[in-house]
Design brief:
Elements (H helix, E strand, L loop, with lengths): L15 H10 L7 H17 L22 H4 L4 H4 L2 E2 L30 H13 L8 E13 L6 E13 L6 E12 L2 H9 L5 E3 L15 E3 L6 E5 L6 E5 L2 E4 H6 L4 H18 L5 H19 L4 H12 L5 E7 L5 E9 L5 E7 L6 E11 L5 E16 L11
């Protein structure tokens, strides 16, 4: 259905009139079922030929507890893929993957155009993110939600567990950086899972067997409890002192973060050199097999929330666009309910898995990163299991952290 990325042959730049036409298509109420296919084809043709207007600037920090949500249609406003990128895996339960287009986007005379490829989407995203203005503040602050989707020990339903983490990185050499960690409750995933959980007696803890193959990311014999412990805060010391974050398991200083190249070729050379340094510490890494996946993963880390310039983020998008293997999958929903455009690729290994990434449509920041496989429940239902990291918030702030009662 969708095409993989190819090297070279990027889409042509387009003027504001092309993007205005796409916005006009999206300004009406939703279509009936028969209009969707033709409308989607026409919208994808517009995206393929256009680059975004570049109006999206990176937003300031939003208070915790107010996650952003985007409907499929609004996520596509303008040149959707220009600023919304999701790398998706298998189908997410209870989420649709169709782009909703208004009736005016479809007509009897509309001819299906080419679908936007992964390369088109990445290059358009690079153009959009470049428009963001460089910002600064006392802290670079991120909030990340991590979790796993796993099969219950009796294989009757799916469970999701996770945690939220805020990192406050002080820019000033004498400043103190902080970490706030909040365990989240373990819950059934879908309404069908809730019903099966209730039928099993609504257990509050789950004891897993020694053999945990096909259950998901759980430890042999692990006991999982539904009630989370209170949040706690801690000061970041040691290698975190003067750190702007981490890239390929190594700390990045504020000075180095400002020096990361914003040209795709120079960025690749920088990442390869950094990866080479990592292999000196871990000589078992086979660079011949792992270099390309590690360069790709490094780009994802840059987009995930490191305090780099919009131009560096754009270079990361363009570098990803030059690498083959991604497929455009359409609109998908991330673990926090946010939507964006999908790009999938296969992970190598003994178990078939794919990876998911999501970037906010109005910021270009990565929303989520998922890896998924499949499992079979006792009733024969095939389900998705795996781990995810959702990047809920990232940005500069002059506020001070609101530390929980339990902190050092």
């Amino acid at each position: 259905m969708d095409e993989t990325t190819d090297r070279g042959n990027s889409s042509r730049p387009a003027g504001p009139e092309d993007l205005t036409a796409v916005r006009r298509l999206l300004s009406e109420p939703g279509p009936d079922h028969d209009a969707v296919a033709a409308g989607r084809a026409r919208l994808m043709a517009a995206i393929t030929a256009a680059e975004p207007p570049g109006r999206q600037a990176r937003r300031r920090w939003r208070p915790a507890g107010r996650p952003r949500h985007w409907a499929v249609g609004s996520a596509l406003l303008g040149a959707v893929a220009a600023s919304a990128v999701v790398v998706t895996t298998l189908a997410v339960p209870d989420t649709g993957a169709l782009v909703t287009v208004p009736p005016s986007a479809a007509s009897d005379s509309a001819k299906p155009g080419p679908q936007a490829t992964a390369q088109h989407i990445l290059l358009a995203a690079a153009t959009a993110v470049t428009a963001g203005a460089a910002e600064s503040g006392t802290y670079w602050r991120t909030r990340v939600v991590r979790g796993q989707t796993m099969v219950s020990p009796d294989r009757r339903y799916l469970l999701r567990r996770g945690s939220a983490e805020e990192i406050w990185l002080a820019v000033a050499p004498a400043g103190q950086s902080h970490r706030i960690f909040e365990p989240l409750p373990v819950q059934p995933v879908t309404a069908q899972d809730v019903a099966a959980w209730r039928a099993a007696g609504s257990p509050a803890e789950w004891r897993y067997p020694i053999d945990v193959d096909d259950f998901g990311e759980v430890e042999p014999g692990e006991v999982v409890k539904s009630s989370p412990s209170p949040p706690f805060g801690s000061r970041l010391t040691g290698g975190w002192r003067g750190s702007a974050g981490h890239l390929m398991k190594r700390s990045v200083s504020w000075a180095e973060a400002r020096r990361i190249p914003d040209d795709p070729q120079e960025l690749r050379a920088y990442l390869e050199a950094r990866i080479g340094g990592l292999t000196k510490k871990f000589p078992s890494i086979d660079l011949e097999q792992r270099l390309e996946p590690m360069v790709q993963a490094s780009c994802f880390e840059l987009l995930a929330g490191l305090p780099v310039s919009p131009q560096v983020r754009a270079a990361a998008f363009r570098l990803l666009a030059s690498m083959p293997g991604m497929r455009a999958e359409g609109a998908v929903t991330d673990p926090l309910g946010r939507t964006g455009q999908g790009l999938s690729y296969q992970l190598n290994g003994p178990v078939a898995r794919q990876r998911l990434l999501v970037v906010a449509p109005d910021t270009g920041l990565l929303l989520a990163d998922q890896t998924r496989g499949t499992a079979t429940l006792a009733d024969g239902r095939r389900v998705n299991i795996g781990a995810y990291t959702a990047y809920e918030q990232a940005g500069w702030t002059d506020e001070e952290p609101d530390l929980p009662a339990d902190h050092d």
